[in-house]
Amino acid sequence: MNKRNAWLLTAAFAALSLTACGTTEKSLPSNQAYASSTENGSASTNAEVFEVNSGETKGGNEGTLEDQVPNESAATNLLKESKVFKYDDSVVFTLETAEFSSIIEPSNPKDDSVGRKILSDSEIFLHIEGTLNNDTIDSVSLGHQLGLIQFFALYDGKHEFEGIGAVEEKDGSDFKTGSSVDSLTEGRVHGYFQVPKPVAESDKSLMLKVLVGEETFDIPLR
């Protein structure tokens, strides 16, 4: 082998050696690269966001307190908003007002003899009023032990009063004999409790309990 060939062979071997000593770092698979950057605190996290609208919340199996409508009636109304109760989507009871009164009258009384009046100076009515829409095949009664809808008032967490129901005639001139709303009609309905005057004059707690089917709803009045 002459000197020229030996020099070329030496140069080729040196080039091969430099190539072999070069960088051999491999790319990480994408998931491993994400894990490594996460460990270093440099990864940005994408999160799925769930939003819940409180107005869509429903409770109970038999009946549901579904809607709350801002109340624009007189300042004596103890309800901050109307309450809507549904039973099997066929009976809708809308409670509009709750107030203390010494007399309970229908919407358009025919004369002064119509209505319920307090005869005692030491008592007063807690009066609730609203509408009931009956889309069933039977009449729906309220305000007594066998009624689909019943009312109770709890004063100071320990004194309970049972309410009595009343339903207006179609023209609002008087109360019907019974406290029921006929099939496929809407009636103006009332509930009332005869309570001692301290219930109205005190600032102690007052809770309205509405029983719809087998479900009870607590409505704070004070």
Write up what this structure looks like.
By secondary structure, the chain is mainly beta. Helix content is 15%, strand content 39%. It has 3 helices and 14 strands. It has helices at 3-20, 30-39, 197-201, and strands at residues 63-70, 81-87, 91-101, 103-104, 116-117, 123-134, 140-141, 149-155, 159-162, 164-167, 180-181, 185-196, 206-212, 215-220. The strands form 4 sheets. It has a 6-stranded antiparallel beta sheet. The chain has a 4-stranded antiparallel beta sheet with strand order 9-8-13-14, with no helix packed on it. A two-stranded antiparallel sheet has the order 4-5. The protein is globular and about 45 Å long. Mean pLDDT is 76; it is low at 2-64.
What best-fitting shape do the alpha-carbon axes yield?
globular
Major sheet summary line: 6 strands, antiparallel
Low-confidence stretches: 2-64
Q: Strands across the major sheet, in which order?
A: 1-2-3-6-12-10
Percentage beta strand: 35-45%
Number of distinct beta strands: 14
List keywords for this structure.
222 residues; mainly beta; 3 helices; four-stranded antiparallel beta sheet; 39% strand; 15% helix; six-stranded antiparallel beta sheet
In short:
This protein has 222 residues and is mostly beta strands.
Topology:
Elements lengths: L2 H18 L9 H10 L23 E8 L10 E7 L3 E11 L1 E2 L11 E2 L5 E12 L5 E2 L7 E7 L3 E4 L1 E4 L12 E2 L3 E12 H5 L4 E7 L2 E6 L2
Antiparallel strand pairs: 1-2, 2-3, 3-6, 4-5, 6-12, 7-11, 8-9, 8-13, 10-12, 13-14
